Amino acid sequence: MARKKRSSSGELSFSGLGVSPGIAIGPAYVREHGAIDIPELTIPASKVKAECTRLDAAVERAQRQMARLRAKAKTMPETAADELGFLVDAYEQMLMDSRLIRGAKQRITNQRINAEAAVQAEITEITNAFAAMDDAYIAARIDDIRGVGRRLILNLTQTPVKPFASVPKGSIVIADELTPADTAQLNPERIMGAAADLGGGEGHTAIMARALGLPTVLGAQDMLRHVHHGDMIMIDGTVGRVVINPGKATLDAATRQQKTYRRQAERLYRMRDLPAITRDGVEITLQANVELPIEMTMVKTSGAAGVGLLRSEFMFMSRDDVPSEDEQYESFRDVVLAAEGPVTIRTLDVGGEKPAESLLKGMDEKATSALGLRGIRLSLLQPDVLETQFRAILRAANHGPVRILLPMVSTVSEVRQAKAILKKAAAKLKRRKVALPDPIPPIGCMIEVPGAALAADALAQVSDFFAIGSNDLTMYTLAIDRGNEYVANLFDPLHPAVLRLIQFSAEAARRMDIPVSICGEMAGDPRYTALLMGLGFRELSMTALSIHRVKQRIRDIDLIAANRRAGQIMDQVDSGRIATLLDDMNSLA
Ligand code: PEP
Ligand code: MG
Question: What pLDDT sits at residue 74?
Answer without folding.
Answer: 72
